[in-house]
Amino acid sequence: MKELYDELIGFLKRKEPESQSPEGLTDKIMHAIQKEDVRKLPYISLMANEKQWNLYRAVRVITTTAAAMLIIFLISEQWEMNRKLNRLQNELISSQLFEEHNKYPSRSEKIQQVLYEFTEDAATVGLETNSGEAIRINRKSLNYLLNKIQELEKENISYRTKLLQTNSDSIQFIQK
Amino acid sequence: MDQQQADSLIINSASGDMVSFRKLVEMHQSFVFAIAFRMLCDEPDTEEVVQDTFVRVWKNLSRFNHEMRFSTWLYKIAVNLCYDKMRSRKLRLNHVPFSIEGLILGNLPSQENVETTYINREQAEIIRYLTNTLSPQQRIVFSLSELEELSVEEISEITGMTPNKIKSNLYCAKQAIRKKLEKIEERRTSYERTL
Fold this sequence. Notes:
Low-confidence stretches of chain A: 122-129
Distance between the termini of chain B: 56 Å
Number of domains of chain B: 2
Largest interface: A-B, 26 and 41 residues
Oligomer: heterodimer
Strand content of chain A: under 5%
Helix content of chain B: over 70%
Number of helices of chain B: 9
Structural class of chain A: mainly alpha
CATH architecture of the largest domain in chain B: Orthogonal Bundle
Low-confidence stretches of chain B: 93-98
CATH class of the largest domain in chain B: Mainly Alpha
Largest sheet of chain B: none
């Protein structure tokens, strides 16, 4: 059995198999290689247009950068606007709070209030005349009225000063 | 042609010189053909593999590692292509003509006066008969070891298999072939008894 195995292997080794047409095979190989080279040509022609590709890439980069910058600019503008609106809102809130905590009645309201006090005061009763346009008032009541008006004036001055201190920007803007 | 000339041909080919590459192909073509044919046992497939091998060589010559032998590199490419081919046409190998047994039982033809085509056909039929039940890996190892007479280290470098795997594949291949030959022997003895 070993003899048969050796005999077969020996037979196979004795002569190498050969191509029927070695030259034809060489030609086929060279033809295949040339075909491979031809396949590479479109790539080479693309490389020749490298300048155009560079231009295209440059335009793309510029437009992309411009778009990005525009977006950044819009975002920053929005942010700045929000910041200003918030500031204005805060100022308005603070001025409202100031007014809520410090209620300053108007001049006419204050005088009206004083006049009502007169009617309730026993010292002023009986001073009314027939004419609805004129009133008679004693010296004490007149002094009281004048004192109240003076207090009101003082209050108004202090209110304006405080307003000037807290909302200086708004007042300056209004003045302009 | 000495090694220096071969090296200069490789360098020239790598720079795109077709004439040098043609010489390189002419030098190594028969050797690649023999390896591929012993594995594939089919001439058109073998020619295709030889062609693909040299196309790959042409494409990758610039990356060729000059520390490696050119023939080893060729072996590597050719064996890989043969392996792919064998896997793709697995079923075709199973068909073996019955006349092969007659060929083995009778006298093997002498080499001197026989046409190349006839030798190729005979060799193909014998190898196909012996190895048709082997896996592609076993076929490769058997072919490289028994027919090309390469060492385990060389086979390992070409195929990337470990020496132990090569040895086990070779053992299995030999066992399978011997079993087939045993059957033939039995038939021969029974035939002789009837005479």
